[in-house]
What we know:
Elements: E1 8-12, E2 16-18, H1 29-42, E3 48-53, E4 56-61, H2 63-71, E5 76-81, H3 86-98, H4 105-118, H5 123-130, H6 134-142, H7 148-156, H8 161-168, H9 172-179
Parallel strand pairs: 2-4, 3-5
Antiparallel strand pairs: 1-5, 3-4
GO cellular component, one term: chromosome
GO molecular function: DNA binding
Domain ParB-like N-terminal: 9-98
Amino acid sequence: METITEHLKEVGLAEISIGKTNPRREFNxxxxxxxxxxxxxxxxxxxxxxxxxxKGYELVCGERRLxxxxxxxxxxxxxxxxxxxxxEALEAQIVENLEREDVHPIDEAETFKLMLEQGNYNIGxxxxxxxxxxxxxxxxxxxxxxxxxWKKLFLKGVVNLSKALxxxxxxxxxxxxxxx
Length: 180
């Protein structure tokens, strides 16, 4: 029987690159600082997940942990090393990140868009994968229609989700007018 510990390896931070598919795009510096202090005192309690590449490893799950470890200048971290194709890596990231409550709806929107663009998923597949309704997925996807200004206001918390969903229905030229 295979166990996770059979695949744990100490991996140098310099060998790890950040993948482009992480659903989380925004990171709170204060939160990373707190996590780094916890890691300094107690060690890294949950290994990161990486997949081998030609030049080392690509991070699949654990970017906050990796950033915190880099902040305190660790040289290596325990990592679960798994051979994953792009679709499997994306699915692991979805499970790791999107099932948490603290992922911003913009990050969800961008992830769902990426999944659709890859052609391996449709709206129903995504809904099933994360145990949400198709309406939820469609609403999140509509947030990709926000122009940069509204997206920024939403990320900062100046605009709430309800208002962002309404504004996202407008053409970008009208979004600009509403902003003024």
